[in-house]
Design goal:
Helix content is 29%, strand content 29%. It is of the alpha+beta class and 397 residues long. The protein has two domains: 5-28 and 289-390, D-Ala-D-Ala carboxypeptidase, C-terminal domain (Peptidoglycan synthesis regulatory factor (PBP3), Domain 2, Sandwich), CATH 2.60.410.10; 66-221, DD-peptidase/beta-lactamase superfamily (Beta-lactamase, 3-Layer(aba) Sandwich). The longest helix is centred in the last third of the chain and has 18 residues, at 267-284. The radius of gyration is 25 Å and the shape is globular. 45% of the residues are buried.
Amino acid sequence: MPEPIYRALAASLLAAGMLAAANGPAQAQGPDAPFFTDTAARSAYVLDVETGSILLEKNGDQGFAPASLAKLMTADIALDALAKGAIEPQTTYPVSDHAWRTGGAPSRTSTMFAAVRSNVPVDALLKGLAIQGANDAAIILAEGLDGSERAFAEHMNRRVTELGLTASRFVNATGLPAEGQAVSARDMALLGRHIVSAYPEQAVLYAEPEFEWNRILQRNRNPLLRLGIGATGLATGFTDGEGYSIVGVIGKDGRQTVLSLFGFESDAARTKETVRLFDWTNANFERRTIFATGQAVGQAQVFGGTAGQVSAVVDGSVELYVPRKRTDLVAADVRYDGPLQAPLRKGDRIGTLNVTIEGKPALQRDVFVGEDVSEGTFAARAAGAIQELAFGWIRSL
């Protein structure tokens, strides 16, 4: 069988035109005025939580040492276990010598000061992880859930695949320096979005201002929380040679934004740029409905069926954050794995809807068959095969 061939159903379905028809003419700026802002971050990926709209991207797949951002994956695995009932908030795990020496008081790293050979409940470990970025909490959870930190790292990498992350690999639960460990701004933005969407009741831990354990009170390490801008998380990191990083979540007017930024020279520069980019996204984007629920986004050609075409639909409506007064920059096309061969069943996935802003990816959604198409007669299948070859496709009947 040949490899999948991608064909556009509509060469640039001009979403900009559809928006203009619904909301008045686009007010275009000069052609030499780029819409997207630049950023001091070496790598950036900014997402709207609810819609998944990409608001800004710069070197989004470039690899970086994760530092404490690795603990977001550690937290996700623990929260997933809680959600599935595999563990309870009051489940306790022991503090091993390894957890204490590597991530506890002797380590001189971020720690919740769990006492060696004591037992700590999961709910306290999650607070230490979220509020203090505690390395001992991460290792205790790793050992408790999978028996060893090495086995837990393998679990983390399986989870990478499950969540559709593409550039991340973990060696430990903490993000402490280790050969072969890396993440990307895109992966961390997607992971941050997943955490606040999948575990809303637990994600509020990241916004708590302080946590006390073993009679030691510590403040939340996230500098955004003290600015009064609606920040609710999530994590910060620092690595020698690669600088300061952050996965921030900020909410305003019912809208949440994830900002994943890497490569700053100072904590102050990281904070300032995170706030600037959040303000920029709020000032320059507005939410629009690109396709209503049930609306066909295109027509796909079908071979060997009782119908020659089938409608392509998405699940639900397509909501997108688009540039204010620059809807002329928005375009979309639908691409499917071709050729489509009958029979087809309603709901079968056949491709993707790709929306771009100023040529940059903004949203991608799966596309499905809108109605059943039965297999046609032999003559229809033969005619379909002839037409297929005319397009340059080679398939065995």
